[in-house]
Task: inverse folding
């Protein structure tokens, strides 16, 4: 019997997580050796209590990890992936926007030999703001990550054990899971899946979080800013050389209007000051991220882990390779 792990990052899901887990168990417990990994990203409601009840009721199936603070969705997923044992791993949301009935389709597709299978939605039931953010994120990923144009990087996906083992090697404090996946493999499948409206609450994504995600994508997983900086520096250097040459010619030819001191100062310093500020800002961002990594900024911290299974060592986890 193949083993299947389902990772669910949980945040303020007291009204949905119990029904979701019970539905998943009813769908898969007879066909797979099932494991559900719940990662509570420091919820402020009764999520912790409910998750512990679920683990007690289904101790052989549910593993529960509670993080020490809110690290964000991608960090919570990485925490969950590090706890999985399955030959195949599904990642899904906690709010029923990813219907449990669609999970078998992803599992069947990834079992064909793909490293990862992304769900593709014929119609998304998100807000206009969230859909716009997803569109901009996908457009940026095409440029920064060389993402295939027809691939939607959905959070609802399935991976094989080979890919999971490679993904969890990355210990960066600002993980972007899809960027890591695209670095590792191009053996990617897709399957059309239904996307429903949230049953309760509202999306945790804000403009600030979306901007932070885009910043992580650009700075942590791409050299594009440095290349743009180099191109900008080259252009400004040419403009600076032209400006200095123009001043020199005007000083040498008496029939031309002599440049004022303000014009001279402006032509020499304007572009270079702007270039220095741009360079300082971008390089400072890189240095800051290097500092976080050297300072051993944690990717996540598990405050509490509740499981009936012993934690495997690295050699045992490696034996699950696809």
Result:
């Amino acid at each position: 019997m193949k083993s299947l792990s389902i990772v669910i990052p949980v945040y303020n899901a007291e009204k949905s997580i119990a029904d979701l887990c019970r539905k998943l168990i009813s769908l898969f417990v007879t066909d797979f050796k099932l494991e559900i990994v719940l990662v509570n990203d420091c919820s402020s409601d009764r999520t912790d209590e409910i998750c512990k009840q679920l683990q007690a009721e289904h101790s052989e199936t549910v593993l529960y990890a509670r993080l020490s603070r809110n690290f964000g969705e991608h960090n919570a997923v990485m925490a969950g992936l590090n706890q999985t044992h399955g030959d195949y791993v599904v990642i899904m949301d906690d709010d029923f926007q990813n219907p449990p009935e669609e999970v078998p389709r992803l599992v069947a597709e990834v079992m064909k030999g793909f490293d990862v299978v992304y769900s593709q939605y014929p119609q998304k039931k998100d807000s206009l703001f969230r859909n716009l953010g997803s569109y901009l994120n996908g457009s940026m990923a095409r440029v920064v990550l060389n993402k295939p144009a027809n691939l939607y990087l959905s959070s609802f996906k399935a991976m094989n054990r080979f890919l999971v083992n490679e993904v969890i090697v990355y210990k960066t404090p600002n993980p972007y899971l899809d960027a890591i996946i695209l670095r590792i493999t191009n053996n990617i499948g897709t399957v059309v899946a239904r996307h429903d409206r949230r049953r309760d609450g509202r999306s945790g994504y804000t403009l600030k979080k979306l901007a932070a995600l885009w910043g992580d994508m650009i700075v942590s997983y791409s050299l594009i800013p440095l290349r743009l900086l180099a191109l900008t520096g080259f252009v400004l250097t040419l403009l600076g050389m032209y400006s200095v040459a123009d001043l020199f010619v005007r000083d040498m030819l008496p029939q031309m209007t002599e440049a004022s001191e303000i014009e001279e100062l402006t032509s020499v310093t304007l572009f270079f000051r702007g270039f220095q500020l741009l360079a300082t800002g971008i390089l400072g961002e890189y240095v800051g991220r290097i500092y976080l990594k050297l300072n051993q900024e944690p990717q996540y911290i598990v405050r509490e882990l509740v499981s009936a299974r012993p934690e495997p060592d690295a050699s045992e986890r490696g034996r699950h390779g696809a």
Summary: Residues 312-322 have pLDDT under 50 and may be disordered. The first helix runs from residue 17 to 28. The chain has eleven helices and eight strands. Residues 224-294 form one domain.
